[in-house]
Specification:
294 residues, mainly alpha, 66% helix, elongated
């Protein structure tokens, strides 16, 4: 059985305009009861009640977020490993830097010692070559001698030639070795100094005796000359004195000439070239042909 509303709608007596008006009024009444305006009256940026909407979200719309920190079980092990590696690398770097510093200090000490030994006004070349040649000469000269002589001759010749060809360098070397001996071996240095002083004293005594013997020989020679003069009547003393005076005069003249005459300077004015054959070029020769009479 149909409802009264359905019957009313199907009734031809009710016009369509009345039906539409009744539906619109009922919807407007429902919207007014809910407290909202129709959708056609809401402007952009405002709410349905007409209030201006905020630009940024409010705390009411953003609830608080709580972060829960969860530790990784590998973090302590990684931290300990990193600290251990850092300590090892730091120790290695410190050790390397210490070694480099020690090496630089050693180089500077060696350079300073070498500069203190080598004099700036005395060249090593060719004096050092002469010293080495003297050592080799000792080895050559003693090649047919006994083993101790062959063993001691080269260093002995080298030590004797070193102060002769390089006097300042040898003096500095002796001084440097003496300082090292006094610094590291004081007892041995004291004995060495005592031995050297004793040797110097004995050498002075020996040299004094040689001078005394020379003076005695000279006096004996004068007495012998006087005896010969008394015996034979020859004037040997005058001849000897004249020879000695002539020698002294010649020596004095040479000394004065060396002082008065300046050193002669030379300049290169030309070159002498000697031409020598370098090679000989030969070629085969053909035998002469005999002429035949026709």
């Amino acid at each position: 059985m149909a409802s009264p509303a359905a019957r009313l709608l199907r009734s031809p007596l009710v016009p369509a305009s009345v039906l539409v008006a009744s539906v619109f009024m009922s919807s407007a009444r429902l919207a007014a009861d809910d407290g909202a305006l129709p959708s056609s009256s809401v402007r952009p940026g405002r709410s349905a009640s007409g209030e201006k909407l905020p630009i940024y979200p409010t705390p009411e719309h953003n609830p608080a977020i709580t972060l829960v920190e969860t530790h990784n079980p590998l973090v302590p092990y990684i931290t300990q490993s990193r600290e251990s590696v850092s300590n090892v690398l730091g120790d290695a770097r410190t050790y390397v830097q210490s070694g480099v510093s020690k090496w630089i200090t050693f180089e500077r000490n060696v350079e300073r010692e070498v500069k203190s030994v080598l004099p700036p006004d005395e060249a090593l070349n060719p004096g050092l070559i002469y010293v080495l040649v003297a050592g080799l000469s000792g080895s050559v000269l003693s090649r047919t001698r006994s083993l101790p002589v062959r063993f001691l001759a080269p260093p002995l010749f080298t030590l004797l030639a070193f102060p002769y060809f390089l006097p300042k360098t040898s003096h500095n070397v002796r001084k440097y070795l003496s300082n090292l001996e006094d610094k590291h071996f004081p007892e041995f240095a004291a004995r060495h100094d005592h031995f050297v002083q004793t040797g110097v004293a004995h050498w002075g005594m020996l040299w004094g005796r040689i001078e005394d013997a020379t003076e005695d020989a000279r006096e004996w020679g004068h007495r012998a000359v006087e005896g010969v003069e008394r015996t034979t009547g020859l004037r040997l003393g005058e001849a000897v004195s004249k020879v000695e005076k002539e020698k002294e005069r010649l020596v004095e003249q040479e000394r004065q000439r060396a002082v008065a005459v300046p050193a002669q300077k030379y300049e290169t004015v030309g070159y002498v070239v000697e031409q020598k054959p370098v090679a000989e070029i030969v070629a085969p020769m053909e035998p002469p042909k005999e002429k035949k009479l026709v």
